[in-house]
Amino acid sequence: MLNSWALFAISTGYVALLFAIAYFGDRKARLAGAPSQKPWVYSLALGVYCTSWTFYGAVGRAATSGWDFLPIYLGPVLVFVFWTPLLERIVRISKRHNITSIADFIGARYGRHQPIAMLVTCIAVVGVLPYIALQLKAVAFGFEVLSANSSSGTAPFLDNAMLIAAMLAAFAILFGTREVLSSENHHGMVLAIAFESFV
Asked: What is the pLDDT of residues 46-61, one digit of tens each?
């Protein structure tokens, strides 16, 4: 077990390493042009799909209910295996019309209708909040498990995971949303996510 402050320092160092990798990936793409397609980087980056949901959700569900956790993983596999032409068409349309979000895509389908795009945004936010809450709870629970003084009460920043959320938000802002263009590929963020999946 680790002291809370030591664990916090290690975690901050790890996040700083992810920042450095993302910066390196962005800088390399900016100086040398877009890197050649590296299937292993993109394969590892897709591995982020299996994060705390796998550890806290799917494993527990498999232990209590059996095989009914499987559709969560079969769905994306079937999409990538059988619906590749549909995915290619969506990407082509998005690039042609400079569409950067699901709300823009569905709004554009109905004549750039803003109320529909706003409704889709609201539905997406409501739908993703429980998943983000699960991710933050998993990180905070991981801190508690690894912390030496988890039973005697941890530091306030470990209890509410606000600092963790702030670091993740800073990472997303710096390396994900600086430029909102359909042609932007976020090489640095993909490289950092691939490294994180590898770890």
From this structure: 777 666 666 666 777 7
Torsion over CA of 63, 64, 68 and 71, rounded to 10 degrees? -50
Q: At what angle do helices 162-176 and 187-198 cross, to 10 degrees?
A: 140
- Rounded to the nearest 10 degrees, what angle do helices 4-32 and 187-198 cross at? 140
Tokens of 112: 């750039």
Distance (Å, whole) CA 162 – CA 57 = 22
CA distance 33 to 48: 26
Chain centre distance of CA 174: 14
Answer whether residue 112 shows pLDDT above 80: no
The CA distance from 68 to 196, in Å, is: 28
| pTM of the predicted model as reported, rounded to 2 decimal places | 0.64
* DSSP letter assigned to residue 53: I
Q: What are phi and psi of 147, to 5 degrees?
A: -80, 135
Show Cβ contacts of residue 186 under 8 Å, excluding neighbours closer than 6 positions: 26, 175, 176
Exposed/middle/buried for 150, CB within 10 Å: 0-12, 13-18, 19+?
middle
Tokens representing residue 105 in the block: 């895509």
Q: From the CB of residue 8, how many other CB atoms can be counted at a distance below 10 Å?
A: 19
Q: Which of 37, 49, 42, 89 is nearest to 191 (CA)?
A: 42
Neighbours of 25 (CB within 10 A): 23
